[in-house]
Every structure is written in structure tokens, then in C-alpha cells.
Amino acid sequence: MAIVDITVIPIGTETPSVSNYVADIQKLLLKLEEEGQISFKLTPMSTLIEGDLPILLDVVQKIHEVPFEKGIQRVATNIRIDDRRDKKRKMEDKLASVKAKM
């Protein structure tokens, strides 16, 4: 199971706020989570998405497209992938491991 840390940045918005774009992306992710494809968490600076890597790469493309669908002409997307294959670990497991050592 992999985790993707993703930030989608629409460029050329009418105002400095991008919360409407973030909300549209979260709605798409919620639909995918309800279908059992992924799990995700919104953070103040990015979104963490967990699932099988091929599915996550497809999800990255889908959410990168969201601002374009809203009329934005330029989008910068930053992704970071954590793909550990020696153990099946979830986001919560990683946090629990750190907390246990504190």
C-alpha cells in the first residue's frame, strides 16, 4: 500500500483563495473513498491519499484535472510517494509507531 502526498495549485485564479478548488478535489476523493478505491486525509497544506500505487497514480491524474475543468488554464501539482513493500502499513500505523516511541 502506498501513500501519496499531493498539492494541486491552480494558477491564475481570480482571488488568492483556492478553497473552492480544494473542496471540488475533496468531493472527488470522497466519492473514490466511498467506492473503496482509496482513503484520504486533508491537511492544511496538502492531501494524503492511501491505496494501491496504480490506483493512486490514476487518482493523481484525476485530481490534477479538476481545476482545468473549472476553467483554469495552468495547474502545478506537487506529489510525493511513499511506497513501502516490505510491510502492509496504513497512515494510522505509521503515526502509532511514532507515538509509541514518544
From TrEMBL:
Pfam families: Thiamine_BP. It comes from the Bacteria. Residues 4-99 form the Thiamine-binding protein domain. Coiled coil: none annotated. InterPro entries: MTH1187/YkoF-like (IPR029756), Thiamine_BP (IPR002767), UPF0045_domain (IPR051614). Belongs to the UPF0045 family. This is MTH1187 family thiamine-binding protein.
